[in-house]
Design goal:
Chain lengths: 220, 255
């Protein structure tokens, strides 16, 4: 039994895992706040999401740096090595999700005082599902559960359905009322960002499967 | 983290074997409660440097140094330095475990008996137990304290040598390839032990095994042809070395 033998490595590795969870919370908060800014037309909140993106970027670089040090100093192999590689991909995906949240916030600023549209509910549903997917994927990572990761990825179907509905409704409105075109376009950007967010979680899930099983495959 | 004064301050150190210069203008500050690793190819001067730190080289005729080595601000090459006292403060662990052919207890009790740090038998027993615990050996040997040290495995013997050294409460532990005679598991145990020990001691380790330096140390010095090419935090040395020579050595392009 090799109990206790590799604790230097384990301690350093645990720190990186904790940092990864911390980063996912930053991203989740950014999405939540960007949607709140959208709902309430809160320019200040939107601005704070945009400036807060720097913190997400910093977290990503810190984790990248720590992974680099782990690889260089601890010579990880097999599942350890796969996990570090997975983490390196996951943080890039999460960082991009943060960018989408900042993108939604920028749109909120562009929209200024424009009134709400009724298709909003579906857009919020998209954000809700994306956030749950992210949070679950981090749990699946911690629990090293490839089946769960796979299941999380399938929820993207629902996101795609919602996106399609939102898209079609917006097109319809634009076709009818010309003065709605700008507003609808902005909303289309927001929903597109949310749709992309969920795609990023699929990539994260693929990494969890790689890390736990060693299989590199793209989910359908 | 609070910045500590360096425990060792080495300034412009030159070392000569007769007329041959083996170390040239080495200057470095060694921080306390950290592990400093010295790496470099054979003959680069890293072991010679290590032995300068407790004046082990004095035993080799025809050697001399220039420059200064300060231990807590005190010049250890001053004429009136008590060498036994210096080597108590700056102990050394060697490549091959070298326990005395005596019992485990007597090995660890040797130092305290010589320096007279134990007032009585129970005092001595306390020191022996504490030292063996610190060396992560107590559980394995507590029922065999009277057995001959040489009957234990090499890994255990090496930890016993570390316990023997801890019994005289050094400030600095010099390790010269402490794991090169050991198997991978025993090696990892020594590495884990080093990380534990740095809470109380300063450790300077010479190793041929670059991966070992990377795994355990906080700072790494790279020696090449008697010179200190680079002295950097270990994470930096192994991800972004400053010198091309260090880069070439670490990546295996030379040496």
């Amino acid at each position: 039994m090799l109990h206790g033998i590799r604790s230097i490595f384990d301690r350093q590795f645990d720190d990186v895992r904790t940092e990864l969870q911390g980063m996912s919370l930053l991203v989740d908060t950014a999405i939540d706040r960007s949607m709140q800014a959208l709902a309430e037309r809160d320019i200040n909140l939107a601005n704070s999401v945009i400036s807060g993106d720097e913190e997400i970027n910093k977290a990503r670089f810190q984790i990248e740096e720590d992974c680099l040090t782990l690889i260089a100093t601890q010579q990880p192999t097999a599942s350890d090595l796969r996990e570090i590689i997975a983490i390196l991909y996951m943080i890039v995906e999460m960082e991009r999700m943060g960018d989408y949240a900042a993108g939604i916030s920028k749109t909120v600023i562009l929209m200024e005082e424009e009134p709400l549209l009724k298709t909003f509910k579906k857009i919020f549903k998209m954000a809700e599902i994306s956030r749950q997917m992210l949070s679950d994927s981090i749990q699946a990572f911690i629990k090293r559960d490839p089946d769960w990761a796979h299941e999380i990825a399938t929820r993207d179907i629902e996101i795609d359905e919602l996106y399609k509905i939102v898209f079609q409704r917006l097109i319809k409105i634009m076709a009818k009322e010309q003065d709605m075109v700008t507003r609808c376009t902005y909303l289309m950007w927001c929903s597109h960002n949310l749709e992309r967010m969920a795609d990023r979680v699929i990539n994260i899930s693929e990494q969890i499967v790689f890390m736990t099983t060693g299989t590199l495959k793209e989910f359908e | 983290m609070e910045a500590h004064e360096p425990i060792f301050k080495i300034m412009n150190l030159d070392f000569y074997y007769g007329p041959t210069i083996a170390l040239h203008q080495i200057s470095m500050d060694i921080s306390p409660y950290l592990i400093t690793a010295l790496i470099g190819p054979s003959g680069c001067g890293k072991s010679t440097f290590l032995r300068c730190l407790n004046r082990m080289n004095d035993t080799i005729p025809g050697t001399h140094i220039e420059g200064q080595i300060l231990l807590n601000g005190m010049d250890i090459y001053r004429q009136d330095i008590d060498l036994a006292n210096l080597r108590q403060k700056v102990g050394m662990v060697f490549q091959k475990p070298n326990p005395f052919p005596q019992s485990v207890f007597d090995n660890v009790a040797f130092g305290p008996r010589v320096v007279g740090s134990a007032r009585n038998k129970s005092d001595l027993e306390i020191i022996v137990e504490r030292s063996l615990r610190q060396a992560a050996l107590w559980d394995e040997v507590k029922d065999h304290l009277n057995e001959n040290a040489l009957s234990f495995s090499l890994g255990e013997q090496q930890r016993l040598c570390i316990a023997r050294l801890l019994a005289v409460q050094p400030e600095v532990i010099l390790m010269d390839e402490p794991a090169s005679a050991l198997d991978p598991i025993a090696t990892l145990r020594i590495e884990e032990l080093m990380v534990e020990l740095k809470k109380y001691y300063t450790i300077i380790i010479v190793t041929h095994n670059m991966q070992q330096a990377a795994r355990v140390s906080d700072s790494t010095g790279f020696f090449w042809l008697g010179e200190l090419v680079e002295f950097s935090p270990t994470a930096k040395m192994f991800t972004r070395p400053e010198q091309q020579l260090s880069e070439d050595y670490i990546t295996g392009k030379m040496g």
